[in-house]
Structures are given as C-alpha cells and as structure tokens.
From TrEMBL:
Pfam families: TetR_C_31 (PF17940), TetR_N (PF00440). Residues 7-67 form the HTH tetR-type domain. Keywords: DNA-binding. This is TetR family transcriptional regulator. InterPro entries: Homeodomain-like_sf (IPR009057), HTH-type_TetR-like_transc_reg (IPR050109), HTH_TetR (IPR001647), Tet_transcr_reg_TetR-rel_C_sf (IPR036271), TetR_C_31 (IPR041583). Gene3D superfamilies: Homeodomain-like (1.10.10.60), Tetracycline Repressor, domain 2 (1.10.357.10). The keyword Transmembrane does not apply. Residues 30-49 bind DNA.
C-alpha cells in the first residue's frame, strides 16, 4: 500500500472521527476505534494528530466550518435587514433539522471540553469563531441595507446564539416541531427588536 502523507490522512481521520462519534457518541471516539473506522493503524492517528484531544479539536473545527459555510451560502444579497436575519436564522435552524447528529456531536464535544483542560481553548475558540461569524453576518446585513443597530452587533449575535443553543438542545432532547417553529419565530422577532 502506498504511503499517505499526514496532510492527506488528516481530513480522512477527521471524517472518520465525525462519522463514528456522530453514530456512537464522543465516548466511543477512542483513537483505536477511529483508526478502525478508517481502516488504518492506531499509530496513524497519533502520528497525524499527536493526541486524541488534538483530533477532537480538529473535529470541532470541521463541524463548525461546515455549519458556518452552509449558513453563509444562504445569505441573501438583496433582501431587507429583517429578511436577511430571518433567512440566516432559518438556514442555521435547517442544519439542526437536517443534521441533528452533527449538532449533537458538537454539543457533546463542547461539554467534554469543559472538563478537559487541553480542549478548553478549543471550546473557547469555537465560541469566539461562532460569535465572530454571526457578528460579521449581522454587520454585513446592516452595511448592505443601511440599517442602524440599537445594540452592538456582537451583543445581538451573542443573544441570538444563546437562544439558538437553547432551542437546539430542546430539539435534540425533546423534539416538538410546532413549538420549535413558534420559538424560532419568537427568537427572530426578539433579535430584530433588539437590533
């Protein structure tokens, strides 16, 4: 079998880790199990990432990048500020409905990172990145539409994300499509009122 460089192996291992842990949970994500998922030696995981925590960090980053890319693709280019915010919120919510395993894995990894000193900086980075992207999308919508904000864009972003995280957790633990729809509309209305 031909040698595969660490740079080539890295995305393969991240995908294998995501597939495995989305199916079976973070607790199942040992380096041995992830290696078996891809069909490589366990040493390959350690050679590529060094530690399991570094692999988990890469998984968090990949999940975040994937979700952000989906929302950014949904950003309208000619809608009003209100319609833009609603569209972005609905696009993000659609990722929860269509990819609940990804959101569950991200939530599990976040909780795991709270108790894992080596991963706490990855969790902080994840939260900073999500807040920064949400702030940027709000700011861009303001610039494009000429809307003046009543609060700083970051404050609005943090408010939205707090509500969104709560709705996501409710959906993952006790789904109720009608209630979620009402709550999402209320969250969007609250964000727009704040803005």
């Amino acid at each position: 079998m031909a040698h595969v460089s660490a740079a080539e192996r890295r995305p393969q291992l991240i995908k294998a880790a995501i597939d495995l842990m989305a199916r079976e949970g973070v607790a199942a994500g040992s380096t041995r199990a992830i290696a078996a998922e891809l069909g490589v030696a366990q040493a390959t995981v350690h050679y590529t990432f060094g530690t399991k925590e570094e692999l988990y960090r890469a998984v968090m980053e990949q999940l975040t990048q994937d979700l952000v890319a989906q929302v950014e693709r949904a950003a309208p280019t000619e809608a009003s500020f209100e319609d833009t915010i609603a569209t972005l919120a609905e696009a993000l919510w659609r990722t929860v409905l269509e990819q609940p395993a990804s959101h569950q894995l991200l939530t599990e990894l976040s909780m795991f990172a709270l108790r894992t000193p080596h991963l706490q900086e990855a969790l902080h980075g994840h939260q900073r990145d999500i807040t920064a992207v949400t702030t940027k999308l709000i700011s861009e919508a303001c610039e494009r539409t000429g809307h003046q904000l009543n609060q700083p864009a970051e404050t609005i972003a943090r408010f939205f994300l707090a509500g969104f995280d709560g709705l996501t957790m409710q959906h993952l633990s006790l789904p109720d499509e009608k209630a979620e729809e009402v709550c999402m509309r209320a969250l969007i209305s609250a964000v727009l009122a704040m803005a």
